[in-house]
Amino acid sequence: MVLVCALAVTALPAFAGPELACETLFALELEQSKATEAKAIKQPKTAIARLNAFKAELSIAARQSGLRNATVAHQQVAQLLHELERADKVLGGDQALVGSGMFWGLHTLLGSPAVRGIRQECGIIMRDMSPVTGLAPLVSLKFGSYLKVVLWLVGLPAALAAITALIRHLLRSAALRERQSKRLICKIPAFLYYGNACTKTMIVDISQTGIKVIASHQDLGHKYVGVHFAGQAHKAKEKWRNKLYAAYKFQTPITEQELQAALATSTFNICDAGIEKTAPACYHDGCEVGCSKHMAPALPLKA
Fold first, then answer.
1. Phi, psi (5° rounding) for residue 298?
2. Domains by residue range for the chain, with CATH
């Protein structure tokens, strides 16, 4: 057991050197790509710290033969750091000028054959480290990136569940609308009251969402109407009309019970249809005779 632990401890630096050097190389490449447009590194001090870390990690990798090009790359990084230090002194600490010089220094370093060779070796190392080849890029992510991936994976089932629930709700709503809007042919006596005019008429088809009636002979442009039939009163809005018929949509869909009660009065005489239970006080049998507010229907009312 002690021997196994000792071997594990001995093997750890051999793994850490190349892997850390690869992570730092990726960070330097990212820093370089961000500065491509401005042609200057915005935070030279941060980049210098990464270069120093890269130099140290390359030194470990070179001693352990973890990366074939580590020795040459280590020398190139050391030379670049020396030149940047000298430039910083000559330029009097002007970070903008130092950042510009660092950009071109990094550009040369990252494009050198030794560093390009290390980049290829890093790709192999990262691929081998991942238990699933498709997840190899995740190895180079920092903790924050790992956290984002975990949150995304956790949130995905919840999002799918929400989408599924929404689809089910829409399907149920569509089925309910289809059931409510099923039109039933009928002949239900009705009374339309416009506020300053009225019409005794006949409902020729009905659903839970609206009705089609014999229109009034004259169109006064009323869009909203009170509809009285089968002892019920409902508010409705005109959807369309022509010379003979008009369609109205209930502001609130009627219930199945109200629909069945209305259908029960189909073919009833208008005097026996229960209209007087909810109609205005002026309504009575024969009230249309001599009434200035009454508008005759466009078709004769026949049961």
1. -75, -20
2. 11-148 (no CATH), 184-277 (2.40.10.220)
